[in-house]
């Protein structure tokens, strides 16, 4: 079953039932070396799933849960291997969405839930994206409307020192550092099909069907005139002057707004059969880190 969270929709199953979890991998077409996040309703739910709960996990959970923070910790022995993809660690998150929390509480189980899309596709920020991507591979979608944050949770690995951000997300690293001291931000995406330093961090991910290219704002118009195919220009905050460049779409000029709107825009452009997306390189700065990360992956060559 798919359900809304505050980040993206998840495809959920009983995280302690290996057969149920196996069906998630099948439905997504997800490689078995890519572990899943277990979603819990509260701190007690998380503590029941780990071999040890460091004080930093307690501090971060008290401050940011429910919310878009996933913590990687040493797994308790009863966590099925298929959830961990053979790793000694487990990823845990308490989502800030009433439907997700109600579902976890009603089942009384931690829910294994990846983003509810086919592997390597664009994550769903609306229920209709789930239906479009998974079709009959999902039996039920709980529609909670558009998600708030729009990109996937920040993943922090607390099983090693220094702590390391494995995936940037809505919570910026400095917010985490303020509570637990210096952390690394890992950016070593590897190619698909190779042994992965951090599982699931494939370089091509979140990819639209259209060819996506990131360009400095001044080159957008010129590049848009090259191709004969259907081209759409995307900028942040302010449209390009003039209409010579053809079709244009705008994402908000603030990072929060742009994150919330990004996946719906990419889904729309795919549905419209756009061939090329020429997008302005997002601004520098920590607030834009997650957006830059997703766009870099979406633009990576297959
Ligand atoms: O916002 C989110 O996190 C969404 C919603 C549904 O909660 N979920 C999500 O799940 O994005 P998924 O499976 O699409 O991405 C989870 C990422 C994957 O890159 C996976 O490799 C990583 O988390 N991950 C899971 N368990 C891990 C572990 N034990 N160690 C390192 N990385 C892990
Ligand atoms: Mg995903």
Verbal overview:
It is built from ten helices and 14 strands. With 302 residues, the chain is an alpha/beta fold. It has helices spanning 18-28, 43-47, 55-64, 81-84, 98-107, 127-134, 173-180, 217-224, 255-271, 289-299, and strands spanning 2-3, 10-11, 13-14, 37-39, 69-74, 89-93, 111-112, 154-157, 164-167, 184-185, 211-215, 231-236, 247-251, 276-280. The chain has two domains: 2-185, Alpha-Beta Complex (DHBP synthase); 211-298, 3-Layer(aba) Sandwich (Rossmann fold). Residues 5, 7-8, 10, 34-37, 68, 70, 72, 84, 87, 89-91, 93, 95, 113-115, 152-153, 155, 166, 198-201 line the site of threonylcarbamoyladenylate. Threonylcarbamoyladenylate (TXA) is lined by residues 5, 7-8, 10, 34-37, 68, 70, 72, 84, 87, 89-91, 93, 95, 113-115, 152-153, 155, 166, 198-201.
Main attributes?
302 residues; alpha/beta; DHBP synthase; Rossmann fold; 2 domains; 4-stranded parallel beta sheet; 14 strands; binds threonylcarbamoyladenylate; binds magnesium ion
Strand order of the largest sheet: 3-7-4-6-5-8-9-10
CATH class of the largest domain: Alpha Beta
Please name the CATH architecture of the largest domain.
Alpha-Beta Complex
Number of domains: 2
**What does the main sheet amount to?**
8 strands, mixed
Structural class: alpha/beta
Order of helices and strands: EEEHEHHEHEHEHEEHEEHEEHEH
Instruction: Name the bound molecules.
Output: threonylcarbamoyladenylate, magnesium ion
> What fold name goes in the CATH topology slot of the largest domain?
DHBP synthase
Determine the CATH superfamily of the largest domain: DHBP synthase
Uncertain residue segments? 189-197
Give the C-alpha Rg.
19 Å
The separation of the N and C termini measures 29 Å
Average residue pLDDT: 92
- How many individual helices? 10
Q: Summarize the amount of helix as a percent range.
A: 25-40%
Percent range for β-strand residues:
15-25%
């Amino acid at each position: 079953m798919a359900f809304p969270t505050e980040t993206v929709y998840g495809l959920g199953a009983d995280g302690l039932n290996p057969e149920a979890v196996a069906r998630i991998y099948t439905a997504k077409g997800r490689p078995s070396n890519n572990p899943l996040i277990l979603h819990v309703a509260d701190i007690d739910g998380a503590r029941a799933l780990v071999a040890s709960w460091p004080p930093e996990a307690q501090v971060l959970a008290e401050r940011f849960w429910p919310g878009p923070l996933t913590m990687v910790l040493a797994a308790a022995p009863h966590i099925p291997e298929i959830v961990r993809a053979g790793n000694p660690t487990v990823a845990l998150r308490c989502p800030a969405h009433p439907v997700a929390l109600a579902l976890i509480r009603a089942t009384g189980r931690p829910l294994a839930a990846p983003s509810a899309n086919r592997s390597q596709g664009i994550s769903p920020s609306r229920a209709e994206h789930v239906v479009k991507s998974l079709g009959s591979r999902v039996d039920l979608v709980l529609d909670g409307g558009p998600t708030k944050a729009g990109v996937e949770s920040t993943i922090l690995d607390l099983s090693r020192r220094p702590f390391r951000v494995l995936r940037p997300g809505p919570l910026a690293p400095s917010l985490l550092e303020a509570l637990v001291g210096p952390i690394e931000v890992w950016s070593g995406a590897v190619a698909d099909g190779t042994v992965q330093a951090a599982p699931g961090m494939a370089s091509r991910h979140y990819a639209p069907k259209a060819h996506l290219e990131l360009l400095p704002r001044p080159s957008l118009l010129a590049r848009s005139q090259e191709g004969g195919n259907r081209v759409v220009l995307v900028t942040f905050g302010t449209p390009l002057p003039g209409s010579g460049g053809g079709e244009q779409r705008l994402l908000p000029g603030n990072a929060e707004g742009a994150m919330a709107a990004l996946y719906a825009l990419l889904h729309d452009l795919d549905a419209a059969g756009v061939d090329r997306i020429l997008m302005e390189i997002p601004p520098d700065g920590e607030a834009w880190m997650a957006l830059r990360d997703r766009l870099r992956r979406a633009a990576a060559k297959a």
